[in-house]
Amino acid sequence: MTDILDVSIEEELCTQVRAVAANGGEIEIIGGGSKRFYGESIEALPIDVSGHSGIIDYDPAELVITLRGGCKLAEVEALLAQNRQMFGFEPPCFGEDATIGGMVATGLAGPRRAWAGSIRDFVLGVKLLDGRGQVLQFGGRVIKNVAGFDVSRLMVGALGTLGIILEVSIRVIPLSETELTIGYEHASADEHIRWINELGREPFPITASLWHDGRSLLRLSGSEQGVSQAAAQLGGDAIETDWSQVKEQRLEFFDSGLPLSRISLPPASPDMLPAESQLIEWGGAQRWCRGEIDVDALRERVGVVGGNLCAFRRHADGVPMFHPLPAAMLKLQRNIKSSFDPAAVFNSGRIYPGL
To the nearest 10°, the Cα dihedral for 6, 10, 13, 15? Predict the structure, then answer.
């Protein structure tokens, strides 16, 4: 049931958007601000949407939760944990004020992403405030309702360029009965990449992997019996590991103060980076590089094998954060933007010029 406060906030946001659009202005959408670093800097009227919060619907038996965009991610995850459930994509918070809207808008996911799927795979429906000041509804609150399903997924990773996420319905998964992390010695990144991709051909209950500085970590999740049997087959050393430190980038590797680049590649792609500056996740599909690099040159190299490079944190001014798009893809993205936000009111330029 929609409460009076929710209606008033929603109406106020609609009024603000219509006024800004009518005057040819621009808006920067701000929730918790924990991921504000992610995307190009813009100069626009800041509008705080964090007050638009609250749980609309949650029945643990249905494995779906519907939330307003301003809900704090950490509080929602605590609620899910109380019911032995979680977001399967393990989203990072990067701060206690992180919101559900920011989680969807950035599309960032944690260690489980390569095995469970991305946020896009879990979004069932979205309620959106578009650039005309209209409220649009796509998808639904149940898994079998797929009306507007793909449109809902467009909001994932759009960085608010298509509108304000008012509500979102997300599928959740049960927490595993147990988890175990096993450590192995792999001197080189290529050795780790070959090994983890060979394991992927077998039905092991893997939910995370990591390689750094000659050491591989593998997380197994599932039933006590299944994890125990897999561990016996895989060998290695059982290690106490807090994977939230990986998810939230609290490891020393990420806290160096150096520029941080994220490279996305087909998992079995060969190593392209100096070992001491690299951390590999997602079975080889996500590789972090710290330190000064020639961004343009490395983008060209990874592009040849179908990858891309994001200048994730602390790069020099003038370095585009996101990998350039082919002209046809950029045109498509701009067409989508104009459909939802014809006057380019929302977060314009946050991803690419014109977006």
Answer: -130
Please state the domain extents for the chain.
Answer: 4-174, 178-313
Going 175 to 76 to 33 to 158, the CA torsion angle's sign is: positive
User: How far is residue 60 from each of residues 20, 81, 305, 349, measured CA to CA in Å?
Assistant: 40, 11, 42, 39
Closest CA to 125 of 153, 93, 91: 153
Tens of pLDDT, residues 68-94 = 999 999 999 999 999 999 999 999 999
On the question of pLDDT at 32 being above 60, the answer is yes
What are 235-274's pLDDT values in tens digits?
999 999 999 999 999 999 998 889 999 999 999 999 988 7
Please identify, in words, the CATH class of the domain defined by 4-174.
Answer: alpha beta
| Token digits of residue 4 | 């009076």
Instruction: For residue 335, count other CB atoms closer than 10 A to its CB.
Output: 9
Tokens of 184: 């192995």
